[in-house]
Amino acid sequence: MSAQTSRGRLVLILVIILAIVLAGWGIFQRNMHYDNLARETTENAIPQVQVITAQPGPDHLNLDLPANISAWYLAPIYAQVSGYVKMWYKDIGAHVKTGDVLAEIETPGLDAQYAAAKANLDVAVARYKLAQITSKRWKALEGTQAVSQQEVDVQAANAEAEKAQVEAARHEMERYQALEGFKKIVAPFDGVVTARMADVGDYVNAGRGDVGARGNATELFSVADIHAMRIFVSVPQDYAYIISPALTATLSVPQFPGRTFKARYVATAAAFNPNTRTVNTELMVDNPLGELWPDSFATAHFEAPGDANILILPQGALIFRAEGMQVAVVDPTDHVHLVPIKVGTVLGTTVQVLSGINRSDRIINNPSAGLLDGDKVRIVPGTRGYNMPSTPPKKPATQSQNDDVRAMPEDNRPSAEAGGRE
Questions:
Q1: Helical spans, DSSP H, in 141-227
Q2: Which residues, in sequence order, are CB contacts of 368 under 8 Å at separation 6+?
Q3: pTM surpassing 0.70?
Q4: CB 185 within 8 A of CB 209
Q5: Spans of biased composition, class Basic and acidic residues (predicted)?
Q6: 3-state secondary structure of 311
Q7: pLDDT tens-digit profile of 333-360?
Q8: CB 219 within 8 A of CB 197
Q9: DSSP states of 203-248 as a string?
């Protein structure tokens, strides 16, 4: 009985000891988990940031701007006389010379007025001749008792009046004669017919063009001189400094992929558009083959001088707040300092920084809105394809060659002797 009691007491003691050990182990694990949780909470409370450094600016800037191509001269041609289109002789796309007849207008009313003007001139000339004869006869009787001096003067004045009537009738006749010349629509300069709005039988109104069914007036023809083309580009105010007589540009158009055309400076408006803050700049490009057409779209590529001494940053690193433009700089103790900067020209996704930072400063990329001056941060590596190269750097040529050699079958590998001979 005593042996069993001793054995039971021993078992009880072992059970108690095991329970104490398990309880102690549990308390130890719980404390360890608590410490880990506290440490992770403390670490997670520190914001993680990615830092970059400012880069030197480019030696030259590439600037691509939309451009509009216009003809060197473009003339819409309207009728100067009213009538019906008798015939047209040049269609769209026709190359014309100065004075080539484009169309003829039939004007019976104008023809009648011209004939009447010539008849009125003949009448005025006849009356002037009669007045001259009468004046001479009365002049011959001057100083006699047959006529008075007043009658002599009246006949002389009447002759002068008839002379003036002749001049008026002649000018009227010449006016209709000039209008008769407008019955033929001619090309004002060498060029290409880009539009023909007239057809045989159409009624045209003097000074207005073809009158449609709804009374709308349009030009009869449009002629464009395309030996050279005018290029109009709206240059942003930030890049206005590149505009000078030495300015050149390279044009590309959608219809000729892979080809470029050289353009040179002609003029600038020397004033900015208040709505777009751009200045209209005119270039020209030679077009001897007529490949460029008026009113087409192009892209003008400019190369402007840059300054490598001016640092650049991505726009995502800038902070826009009430204090002005700032960047978040991380000091050696991993604390943040908001530094005011002065920005220059916007270069697409990057911007020039004129003052406020150094080349060696660690700048937070895409800082959060809640970041404050003096906050402690934890720096983490950059993201591939975002603020670091998306592909690993290429291996050196010697390493690549060694890898290629190791990848060859042993029978195909060059021997040491062969390598020595080479």
A1: 149-181
A2: 47
A3: no
A4: no
A5: 403-422
A6: strand
A7: 989 999 999 988 877 788 888 888 888 8
A8: yes
A9: EEETTTEEE-TT--EE-SEEEEEEEEEEEEEEEEGGGGGG-STT-E
